[in-house]
Design a protein that fits this description.
Blueprint (H helix, E strand, L loop, with lengths): L11 H5 L3 H13 L12 H5 L11 H9 L11 H17 L24 H15 L17 H5 L4 H10 L17 H17 L9 H5 L3 H16 L21 H5 L3 H16 L16 H10 L7 H4 L3 H14 L8 H6 L2 H14 L7 H10 L3 H16 L9 H4 L4 H10 L17 H17 L9 H5 L3 H23 L10 H13 L19 H10 L24 H29 L7 H5 L3 H25 L51 E3 L7 E3 L11 H9 L9 H4 L16
Length: 763
Amino acid sequence: MSSYVGVLVSDQWLQSQFTQVELRSLKSKFVSIKNQNGKVTVADLPPVMAKLKAFSTMFTEEDIKGILAESYAGAGDEIDFEAFLRAYINLQGRATTKPGSAKNSSSFLKASTTTLLHTISESEKASYVAHINSYLGDDPFLKQFLPLDPTTNDLFDLAKDGVLLCKLINIAVPGTIDERAINTKRVINPWERNENHTLCLNSAKAIGCTVVNIGTQDLVEGRPHLILGLISQIIKIQLLADLNLKKTPQLVELVEDNSDVEELMGLAPEKVLLKWMNYHLKKAGYEKPVTNFSSDLKDGKAYTYLLNVLAPEHCNPATLDMKDPTERAKLVLDHAERMDCKRYLSPKDIVEGSANLNLAFVAQVFHQRSGLTTDSKKISFAEMITDDVQTSREERCFRLWINSLGIATYCNNVFEDVRNGWLLLEVLDKVSPGSVDWKQASKPPIKMPFRKVENCNQVIKIGKQLKFSLVNVAGNDFVQGNKKLILAFLWQLMRFNMLQLLKNLRSRSQGKEITDAGILKWANDKVKSTGRTSQMESFKDKSLSNGLFFLELLSSVEPRVVNWNLVTKGESGRSYKFIISLFFIVDLIDMVDEEKRLNATYIISVARKLGCSIFLLPEDIMEVNQKMILTLTASIMYWSLQQQVEEAESSPLPSPTNGHSTTSPDASPVPSPANGRSTTTRDASPIPSPANGYRTTTPDASLAPSPANGYSSTTPDASPAPSVSGEDEISSLSGDVSNLTIDDAASDTTMSSQVENADTPVV
């Protein structure tokens, strides 16, 4: 069995200052500046470091030369990788203290994951441990380890095998992970542990967490600041899940005019929570608006007014008269306890202005007693303006994909956030670097409407340069919030990005092109190579609804990943000769639908466990959503080809027995400084992710499921079909992925302003 080894540094303190993703990136930079003698000198550093994103706006080359001169006698002094890292930390420290440098954000979802200053809050740790003990205390597997002691490092030790984080994600957004896919054993091997972490990180992205610069190795090592940061995001998503009109239509009461409802729909959940809080504070006579969850709440007065108006029966008149903020905070929390609110913070946290814990506390108060109207007319209006199911699912998919790219702007609502054009420009610059003319772009906040139109016009211009179908579409359509056109554009953008990743997988070209039909053929050939007979006629093939084809496809690229004992048939009752009653028919249909759902949920979790970053829902498979089926297939294809390409590059000589490379999937052209073994990225997504430092390991030999007994002794790459196996498959597809074209006929990406009259978006 192969195992993952990251970039190792002999100095443990130095190693602890960086995540594995950061170390890999910096190692790559260091290797790239070696001269012909394989050495790096002090003089080589300024040009490279001045171009790094962390320093590009802070230092010039001359500045960096001056800083390095303080530590090194001559510019010709040779430095090793550890010295390079120390120089980086030195510059980082200078940058954070330099006037005009950006201050750290306290925002949950956009919190930086840099490790150079990684102190953790003991109060936050204690609060999150209490949350975990409360919500997971009865979990069949975790109850043997709970309750956790907040004064120890039990939380970080338990998180090392990945089970806790996966379970916590399912508490935040139920059904995200099929728990059958989690490796739950008291002692798990490194391969299973990495699988759990890969599943965790891909699932965290799928619920909206920002996992920039977090890799599986960081979780394996139990890095407290990274684990605590991820847990805080997951808990926040759970607490804010109902702060939208779809889940809580009563929120419509927060706006005075119906025309403001769209603005409310576009607000981030934490902004909605602040709006809710200020709504009640205004009713209670509190004149100062609360604009944050930190300094504005330190004196406890806002809390006092809020709880008094929500639960006057528990009001303590002495609270406002209390002069000492700490004593007032104690009375506030006593009031909250009488309302049965969970105590996420202490009086000290209120006085010190802990933003994360204050937000969690206010969210808990909202859940316990929102104080909103039950006016049926207002609720009916709110329910009427919410999107249809299909539109909502597509918006969710594109929103999560955008947030996975690691761009500066966080997307809360696609339809509202794209209207000024800036978000789309950021996405375009990410998927097609250099395509955006930033000198012609206006950054939010944008007050002048024509500036928004200018941004969106540039979006349309770039889209046409990328060969998108944009018939009769203008920038003003996006400014006006045309949902169907926005969804159509984003689908083409996501699809372009997906194909670009496949194209960049191999630089070798044989003059071929790849289309949707090429992806379809690859999937069918891959399944056929294992001796199975399932085939996919198109991405709209209704037979895909039972999920069996995708389970066979996943099994063909990595046999160990599918447990066939958990798979249901998901078929109609054709074997039944008699239908004795209408009720039996209904029960049979319900049973088949449930089997299909179980398979679809399992497929998504298995794909994420393998390393695919995907954002579809079980319903997309059950209903055979053409676009989501294409992204799922392409993601699996990307992962499979990536492993074979890495094997071929590491060991070009095939095995004499079966023509396959004998190298482990972990092999890579860049050796680890510790043992020379490679590190590979297993983020097998057609969608780029800022956290594509995910690492999983796959044994060279694995148990492949067989129709007869469930398992047979087969290597992952073994195939009876030579035309699509091993080097032949890489050869046949490497040319395909080098010159990509979009098959408009297959994907229906035609986009026009007349789409308004269509029943569904034409994409």
